[in-house]
């Protein structure tokens, strides 16, 4: 029996899944962890989480393969994007991982903006100047930890770091590198102008290659430790969201991925780079060589729902599943529109369509007549309304009609969330049988890279593991959600143009220093 191991390194866990070549899942093992969220806006994590996780999940897959006489053809890697870890020549981390959610690099963004205009940065990289991306994080080290900056041999992303752990090579693929704000997205090469503006030397970045490339073999030491065969090929499948599009069958223009995990990401493939006239969407490189994607992301969706469940659920974080089920029930008890309650889900700033790192989470229009259920409903609606605002901007520039939206991720286990997506997007949504889109996408990438299948469409068709479900929009809810969308945008604009966010940022810093019974 021939198999492929998919390694998916996410924000809250790492998962290893052993598949047959026709997509049957033989074993799937995960190792959970959590970034550290600090009150000053820092979000950091230790590479030791990944080191332990890689060994744990690969051992589970390797031991299964040995016990069942299965041949492992390759390990295909996908991961979260835009985090940064500085390493020495031996690949050892010199500091905590600077996570993608971190919002402490506004000053570095301003420095980059002085060197290259925001419009030029967008046209070169396909990205906004935003703390989300890698370049300001690297510049932060120069300004705040010059010893780490000087000692760093390479500045790596998560997938790059995992690639080194597996093979000993410093290499990144285009679909990951395009999230650094240092890559020329049209020409698929490091941009000299952006490197200079960010004070980054080219030789301190990893080698570039196409997604789907076999970058080497699993190291003999790690192979022995995890029961994998020696010389197992390692494939870089690509960035988790682009790879998820493969797993969901979002392979050509007109189809959209809406994948909800820690955050939510909407992606649609395009044959050439496309840019929004107001820079409201992003342009990235696809996991399929020669393609690009237009993308709109929301930073806090699944993680915000989990936070709310932990704070207001059944057990107060003692039983996460019970807390989620309690909040799901609360959501059901409030009608569409949540009796007027509006939430802005900007609990770590906003990405598409507002792109404001200072934006704050807001619960608005509460009265004494409102209930906890209304707040729960409004919060879940806010996630989809934010996604819908990004989808609106995507529709403004995509030449093909967006006829299908494929939804996946943990929140899609809640059927009401799927119905909300259909109603707010005003489009039928397709739900694939497996919610693990990134792992399945890594499998598809490997099937093509190894020559098992000749195209991504044929590879997707060969690993389908059941029938898709379809949820159709309820047009009677269009009006209430359209009005909610208008009100939430007016609320955001009032807070932003009135400098409320900047004042709130200053107040948060001061308030975080207050100790009970003491002075500032």
Automatic annotation (TrEMBL):
InterPro entries: ATPase_NBD (IPR043129), Carb_kinase_FGGY (IPR000577), FGGY_C (IPR018485), FGGY_Carb_Kinase (IPR050406), FGGY_N (IPR018484). Pfam families: FGGY_C, FGGY_N. Residues 4-247 form the Carbohydrate kinase FGGY N-terminal domain. One of its GO terms (molecular function) is kinase activity. Coiled coil: none annotated. It comes from the Bacteria. One of its GO terms (biological process) is carbohydrate metabolic process. Keywords: Kinase, Transferase. Belongs to the FGGY kinase family. This is Carbohydrate kinase. It comes from Marispirochaeta aestuarii.
